[in-house]
Amino acid sequence: MVTEERSASSTPPGAGRDDGSPVRIGALVPLTRPGWVGAGEHLLAGLELAVREVNAEGGICGRPLELVVRDTAADPDRATAAVDELADLGVAALAGEYHSVVARSVATRADALGLPYLCSSAVLDTLTDRPTDWVARLSPPQSLGWRTYADFLVGAGHSRVAVATQPSVYWAAGTRILQDHLTARGGSVVEIDLSEKSPADLCDQLADQRATVLLLLVGHPEPAVPIVTSVRRDPRLADLLIGAPAGQPELAEWETLLADDGAAVPFLRYLPQRLTPLGTRVESALRERLGGTPSFVAFEGYDTVAVLADVLRACGTDRARAAGAWPDVAVDGTRGRINFSREPGIGVWQWAGPPIQVVDRAPEERTRFRVLHAG
Questions:
Q1: Alpha-carbon distance 116 to 134, whole Å?
Q2: Does the first or last residue of the chain, that is N or C, have fewer Cβ atoms within 10 Å of its Cβ?
Q3: Residue 135 in contact with residue 107, Cβ under 8 Å?
Q4: Bond from prior residue into 327 cis (ω within 30 degrees of 0)
Q5: Using CA atoms, how far apart are residues 171 and 320, in angstroms rounded to an integer?
């Protein structure tokens, strides 16, 4: 929990109001296309479950906690406008977002406005162009997660890697991380720009290059799904490993659209080998709410509210005090104990201990995930 020295009679600004008005958190999630709607729904489910539990335990010093939800639709401009609107509405803090490029816009605007923002699920290292005390993050930075994925590839004996990409700051950053890490270990990485290539063209190029791995640094479901289908149908590529470090196979939509073709595609997942006791209870509640297995994104949503509630209980709705509390956070989350620190090259307060796994869907039981590597 956040600790703070103050006299027994002192009260955090805004927290001691007895008028019953809610303490509001702005929640930013992708709920419509072209955003990844499945990820947004899981993120929101985790956020909402945690808010209900906080309120069942008395809220924020007797005041109810309330989410004010805005759909980003994976649009940075739309997200920036939502931050302005939420700031004007008087929210105490911002939470959420899945897409890294969108989260970067949110973080940049939150920093400019002086509004605390806890990023739930976006991994782009450079969320802000300058160091800031207004922003903290739960998910691991891309450089850490994707280096872990590269370690998995090296350990599995893969040295000739093809990367299918689309234009994006996020995909470009991922490609650089993979290139730097794999080439330093004797591997090679070939980048294939999909801007003017069909899945059939991609298959021809893969066959010519004799790559042993194809990594999908592309959107989902388009063009990821037709690419997987084409590769699986091409006998020249029967031994090719398909990978998706960004986590596209995590949600049920992947299995629904690809069936057997979607199995054995390793991806990054931010869960531990064992959930905490809180995590086990939350998993059951999320499973009932979602009608299926909750993704790591849902746990990130829950942990986001758990941290913000702890901060707001200690600091009230004073935004500056809340932002100043990141280094004092010590919260038992669903996936481990959460503390924030400054990490080299990362301009925001970062949870240094998020769990990282490389997993895939088991071919013989596609709803079961196999842990292939742990960071």
A1: 5
A2: N
A3: yes
A4: no
A5: 34
Compute the 3-state secondary structure of the chain and give helix, strand, coil in percent, each to the nearest 5.
Answer: 45, 20, 35
Q: What is the pLDDT of residue 18?
A: 53
Compute the distance between CA of residue 373 and CA of residue 358 in angstroms, rounded to an integer: 5
Residues 357/371, Cβ–Cβ less than 8 Å: yes
What token pair was written down for 204?
């021809």
Contact 297, 249 (CB under 8 A): no
pTM of the model: 0.94
Q: Which residues of the chain have pLDDT under 70?
A: 1-18
d(CA 322, CA 16) in angstroms, rounded, equals: 15
Token pair for residue 2? 């956040």
Residues 349, 54: Cα–Cα separation, whole Å: 24
For residues 4 and 285, give the distance between their C-alpha atoms in angstroms, rounded to a whole number. Answer: 32
Amino acid at 121: S
CA 358, CA 371: separation in Å to the nearest integer?
A: 6
Length of the chain: 375
- CA 337 to chain CA mean position, Å: 18
